[in-house]
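Limitations

Structures in this collection are predictions, not experimental determinations, and the ligand pose is part of the prediction. Treat each record accordingly. The example that follows, with flavin mononucleotide as the small molecule, is included so readers can see exactly what is and is not provided: the inputs are given verbatim, and the output is the predicted complex.
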Amino acid sequence: MVILIDEIMQIASEIRKIIEYGTKAPSGHNTQPWKFRLCENEIQIHPDFERALPIVDPDNHALYISLGCAAENIILAGRNLGCNPDLKIEKDTDGVNFISIKVQRDSAAQKDDLFNYIEKRQVTRNAYDDTSIVSKDLKQLIDAAEFKGVHIRSFSTQEEIDQLVPFIIEGSNLQFHKKAFVNELVSRIRFSKKEVEEKRDGIWHSSMGMPGVGLVLGNLIMKKFVDTKSEAKRWKKIIRSTPTFILFLAEKDDVVHWVNTGRALQRFGLMATKLQINHAHVNMPCEEIEVRKKMALALGIEKQHPLLLVRLGYSKRMPYSYRRPVEEVFG
Ligand SMILES: Cc1cc2nc3c(=O)[nH]c(=O)nc-3n(C[C@H](O)[C@H](O)[C@H](O)COP(=O)(O)O)c2cc1C
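Predicted complex:
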C-alpha cells in the first residue's frame, strides 16, 4: 500500500514536471494561451481563447504555433523520463482543435539532447553583432527544424536579406498604423516588475531591454512616441546587424501545419540555444496576410505559407520572461 502511494506520488510529480516544461514554451506576446488537462495516459493541450490576440492573430495561427511549441517540450520531457509520447490533433465536443499526447513508458524510448536546453532557451531581442553564422551551425539548425509539412529557408547574403527588407518594413508600417494593434500590444507589455510578478505573463520591459517606467508612462511612450517612422528606423538598424534570417514555410495553412510549425520552431530555438546563437522574431510580414502573399510571390514560393520570420545572431542574453505556475494552467 505504502509502495503504491509512493508510486502515485512519483507519477504525479513527474507529470507536474512534464507540464512545467510545456509552460516554458514561447508564445506570441507571452500570452501563454494554453490549458493542460490529464486523461489517463494522455496530456491534452487546449487553446485558451481568452488569451488570444484577435488583432495581430485573427485566425489563431500563432496561438496554435505556441501550442505546438509547448507540445514539443512535453514530448522531449516525456522521452527524457523514459516514455514514448505520441501526438495527435483532436477536436473537443464543440469542434475546437486541441493536442493530445499519449504518454506511456517504453524501454526503447530515446532521450533527445535538446531537452537539456528547454530552461535555457529565450527570445533575445537585442541588436546582434555582425558575426556570421558558420554554415555547419546553420545546417544543424535547419536540420533540427525540418518537420512534416514544414520547410525552412535561410537568408544570409546581402542580396538575400535585401529581398526581405521591403516586406518587413511594409508589415511594420501596416501594424503601427492600426490603433487597435498598438493597444493590443501595449496591453501585453509589463512596464514594471511589480506588474509582471503579479501577472507572470506578457512581455516584461527588461526582456525587451527597456527601463521599468511603470504603466502610465509606458502607455504614454508607446502610444505617443512610437509610430511607423520610429519603428521603421529601429527595424532598419536591427536588420543591418542581423547576419541571417530564417523563414518557416508551411505546406498548408491549417491547424495541423500550425502545430507542426510550432514543433519545428521549438526544436530550432533549442538547437540555437545549444549552439549559443540568439534568435528573435520579425513576424510582421507573415502576420499581415496581404504582405505574406506578396512576399511569397516575390520569393517564388507562392504555394507555401510563410508563417514565421526569425533573425539569428550573437549578442548578450536578456533577462528571462515570466511564466504562470502549473496550477494556473490546469483545467
Ligand atoms: C508564434 C509566436 C509568435 C511570436 N511573435 C513575436 C513577434 O512578432 N515579436 C517578438 O518580439 N516576439 C515574438 N514572439 C516571441 C514571444 O514574445 C516570446 O516567446 C515570449 O515573450 C516569451 O519569451 P521567451 O520566448 O524568451 O521565453 C513570438 C513567439 C511565438 C511562439
